[in-house]
Structure prediction request, 461 residues.
Amino acid sequence: MTAMPRPKMRAHMTAHLGHPKPAQASPFANLKAATGSPKVFQDAANARANQGLDGQGLSVAVIDTGVDYTLNALGNGFGGTHKVIAGYDFGMGDGDPMPTWSHGTSVSSIIGSTDPNNSGIAPGADIVALRVFDDSGNSSFSKIGDALDWVLANHNQYHISVVNISISDSMNYTLNWFATDTSAGQRISDTIAKLKALDIPVVAASGNTFKGTQGMGFTAIVKDTISVTGVDPSTGQLASNAQRLGPAIGGDAATDIAAPSLGFNAITGNGQYMSVDGTSFAAPLVSGSILLLQQKYKAEFGSLPSVDQVVSWLKQGGDSTTDPVTNLNIPQIDLANSLALVPVKMVALPLPTPPIATVPPPVARAPSPPAAPTLTVRINGTAVPVGTQVNGKLSLSSLQANGKWKTLDIWTGEAIARRSSGTPTLTPTGTLTKVVPRKHMPAKVHQAKSVRHASAHHKTI
Prediction:
């Protein structure tokens, strides 16, 4: 394994780097994007005005040269209720992160400036200024590791949800040689992984030393960072000096997203605005955008999204950017599209209450008449059922043994037979013996006497 080169971080080195439900209305809703600025600034302005998204309630830790918190655009104060809510100077070992060089101030203004003429992406967010350069402009990876450890220990107190590192060692790595160096490189890699597990992304500039060969500097080469390369808005192509790395060579350490690295202004020395150039200034555009994605998600679900979710929204929402030199296709940030990918909490609507089933009271009905008793008579030796009518008349239901006879009406002591054709009046010639219901029938039922009719055509029954 190649030993980690000991970096000498100087000021001039970093100068080369380059359906929604808002929690509340943004007090910065009227801040417009600067004229001629890249689309991401206009997307952020629209998100403020239409969705109330400005980064409120969240903080970004800027690990850099310090932040000039005396500027009105950055809150004009330090600590307490000021915009620069907290910080530390690891370069000089004291609690005041006031810079001697404006790089970190420029980065912070791109993220959170409240200047009406040069608004940042997330003007409602707070800033934690972590200075890692001394007064001579020197730094080390050990101090960057200290700053990351400070974030790990204090993120809850200051609501830190994003870390921005616009610092590189100007080298061109294709993998993180330092993940197991038992030194500062391993400590940085491990702490970034711990922050990722807490849903706190670390955004890192890829570096500005591209010379035709793929690669990125440290810390962007750490796989758990969100690494950012630069785009020239005038051409839509990757900036000529912006380092880049594809997945075929870099694997999971490949460059994640591209953002404009020139073509807009940021605060420089003495609070003046000047044009910037370098991936150092592409990274804070992504950090500010992440704050808005997080704010939208948190308003819906009450927690931060995972880093993997954030990366997926950035990549899926991004515009295709093809590098003609390396043929890499790296998505360029499109904040409006990415915000549209943030899920909205599904609200369960109450189901309509079904009507209560009621049983109507029973209707009083007249008692049914008692069933007619079943009687039986014998006709020519054949048992035939007979039903009793209410008027005392007995009705033979059918002559099962003789289909010629339609009915046989039986009266007390008399019988009249009618043929199925015609209706002659017949005079009975004999007397029938009345048959009583079964329950009263004697052991021997008398057979009815035959009745002979005057006509020879009529059968005896």
Summary: The chain has two domains: 11-341, 374-440. The mean pLDDT is 81. Residues 10 and 143 are 13 Å apart (CA to CA).
